[in-house]
Fold this protein.
Amino acid sequence: MTNKMIRAENISKYYNLGRLGSGRLREDFKNWWDRSVKNSRQEKEPRNHIWALKDVSFEVSEGEVLGFIGNNGAGKSTLLRIISRITAPSSGVIMGNGRVASLLEVGTGFHGELTGRENIYLNGHILGMKKKEIADRFDAIIDFSGVEKFIDTPVKRYSSGMYMRLAFAVAAHMDPEILIVDEVLAVGDAEFQRKCIGKMKEVSTQKGKTVLFVSHNMQALQSLCHRVIALHKGEIIDSGEPETVIGRYLKRERKINSFQEYEAIPYAPGNDSIRIKKVALLPEYVNDQEVIDIRTPVNIHFEFWYLGAAYDNLIAGVHLFNMKGECIFDVCSEGAMYTNGLIEGKCTIPGNFLNDGSYYISLVFVKDTTNPLYHFEACLAFDVEDYRKDTAWYGKWQGAVRPAFPVTLTTKE
Amino acid sequence: MQTQWKWKIEAKTRWFQWNLKELWQYKDLLNRFVRRDLIANYQQTVLGPFWIFLQPALTTLVYWLIFGKVARISTDGIPPVLFYLPGIIIWSYFSDCLNGTMYTFLQNSALFSKVYFPRLIIPLSAIVSHTIRMLVQLLLFTGIYLFYLIFTEAVKPNLYILLLPFLILLTAAFSLGTGLIISVMTARYRDLDYALQFVLRLFMFASPVVYPTSIVPEKYRFVFWLNPLTPIIESFRTAFFTTGPLHYKYLLLTLFSVTVILFTGLTLFKKKELNVMDII
């Protein structure tokens, strides 16, 4: 049987939301007074707190690559902080067998005034390596980073790319028993990312090391992990085969944001002119997993009651935003006269048009081309997953859109 | 089923769990931090490490002018330069160590929130690098002392000089213990910082840095000796200048209080090191 590398038993973690100011001393004193002097035990649970993790238990075996998924605030980071021994759980026990090194943020403890060489040693020791271990790998680290020319230059003179490469090279060569990789795919250029993934594969398959992997890149998770745990609001809600867990996770996420319907005018969002009856996102799935990827055409259906003055020139527009709040496109209907009543709208975002990422849609209703009637903001949201035939590279594809018109090359001479 | 785990974290850290063995495994890291401090501190300065000498030399000059020439405070018949130097060296060693350790959590929160290593390494490395600086300053003192010893008859050494390493150790332990206690407190109550700098300045004048203990009125002298730094500085002077008897009782008192403070500091630090990260 394989060795267990980490065992977490009923880990919970809460954070106090108390004031972080002048009231703290008094609050602390009061808490202490209540607890020790008045000896009131009934208030064991603190009042102002949020649970970041609730009763999380899991085990990781040697050589296993375990993935964690969950939306923001699901508790992934808190869990990794506890596993990395940065913070203690509020209750529960966690035990580990061997050095945990995280790529939570590479370059930890780098000092600008020191040279690359000095920093390799400093950083290596911070990450728990012995002097000899670093000396043995020194050449490999420099090779991997590609900064050998500048190794005796203070790192504050490095470009940010060189800095990152050197930092990652140290982290990648420390050879821990348990490696934590968190969102590391988001940094660096394509060549560098290929190296990262390669290193991670090597660590897990060839050296049989345990890897904990957190990413929003479902494709990378699916191809690298042996098992995936899904977290939601601090609790484990799903775990098992990557494909199944990821599929269920995406479906769950989608359900929440892809449909709204209102029975009657008084309850519907809107105003005296416009009331929304229904908005729905209807993707035409091209894969059997029912996941929107970059190839999937997405239909948008909406119905609304028009209650404004009859015979006004009415326009309905669909705005698509990315998660940074940048408007990707703004399309609208032809202006026309409508009488009061229920009106249906349709719009299709073609496949092979949007890049992978998260998007949300707002509906806009305008009278006489310039008078806004109603904004139904952020009423629909969806994620577009990446899809590539060639999976050698997992880096983020550039650009707001990702159309599929061809670039042709012809040999001229 | 295996039962051996190499590490284990529970919600409550037990008292007196110091993990000295683990600390020893990280001695390379300690060395590196010391190197970093020493190298980074004097990068891009014109005089470089020469500042280590210059600081006490200039301070001595200023003190001699203000306290010796203007205020005419007694130096117990010892040449002023020699009289001020031990006090200045011990005092600045103490206050540097304290300043280097009492913000452990505040200054290293970025590092502490990313990677695990025994947190105690940081304050210990501060102590070591300040000790190195202090030893260099002692060389300056020794040089001047030898000059006076050979060319004048103003100073007389005695065997108590052998106590010097012990005095240094006491100072280090005192500042480490105090620094550890304060580091846990400054993490939680930031404004403590302002109060502390003020208290530290007062504390210097409560220690026999610019004056000998002999000018303190007899009635208050006992309170004065309770300050752990007083026996340390006075014993230093006694050893090198033979100014009076060695107050070994007070030195033992210092040993006792410093041990208590260091013990309290270590225990508190180890107990709180993980919890502190949630409130910074």
In short: DSSP finds eight helices and 18 strands in chain A.
